[in-house]
Amino acid sequence: MGNKMIQSRHNGRAASQCVFVAIFCFLGVWPVGFFPEKTACSQDRKSSTESNSIRAKKNSSQKDGQSDSSKPKSEIGAQIRLFNGKDLSGLKVLEKSYFDGHGKILVKEGALVIDKGMPGSGIAIDPKVFKNLPKMNYEIRFDAKRIEGDDFFCGLTFPVNDSYCTMILGGWGGGAIGLSNIDTMSAIENETSTHEDFKNNVWYHIRLKVTNEKISATLQEEKGKEQKELFSVVTNDHKFDIWWEQEPARPLGFTTWSTKAAFRNIVLIPVSKKKK
Predict the structure, then answer these.
(1) Would you say the pTM of this structure is higher than 0.70?
(2) How many CB atoms sit inside 10 A of residue 234's CB?
């Protein structure tokens, strides 16, 4: 009988303690001298704290992963976005030399709009952001359109090993195409020279490929027309350089000349080196 009474009192104190613990947990306070050991409430609080810690670490890991995935990776076949379609992150507006009278440069409806300059306007990638991009064996894909003007709407300056070259689209009156320069000769003087009747406000998809074997480019109108080759020139047989006016666009940049244009979907893709 005495043992039953003791057990009953013990059960009563335990029940009362649980009630107090529940109340104190709800209020978030503990009275001085009252620290129950290993109660259900304390275990729940510990479990909740551990869960929150794990969740925070998981979120942090996910954010770190997103950050890592956004960093340029020069892996074969990986697409490196040079323009994010939202702002000018990773890009620099050209302001020196012939670009000191540049037009307004902004992002509109996912496109990079380069307004007419006096005479030049353009942007270049920031090497501090886009590190270790290939200088050879890569492809650049992008869409471009001329909005107004009668000179080149795309001057793409790009590396060829330790040299540079510029692909001109729409120069010399609006239709000339070619590389400037090959063996000191401009886009209308060398073997890459060709012509295209570019239309205003029409998107053209362009692919420039630079390999140890050759430099080539193709063009395709947005509305389903066949892709056409613009030029193909052997790399090792020539010396490549640029007009000094295009030097601010190094190491990789897009410029216009007295012309308003727009660009979008600009990506660089490293490609495999072909064996000789």
Answers:
(1) yes
(2) 10
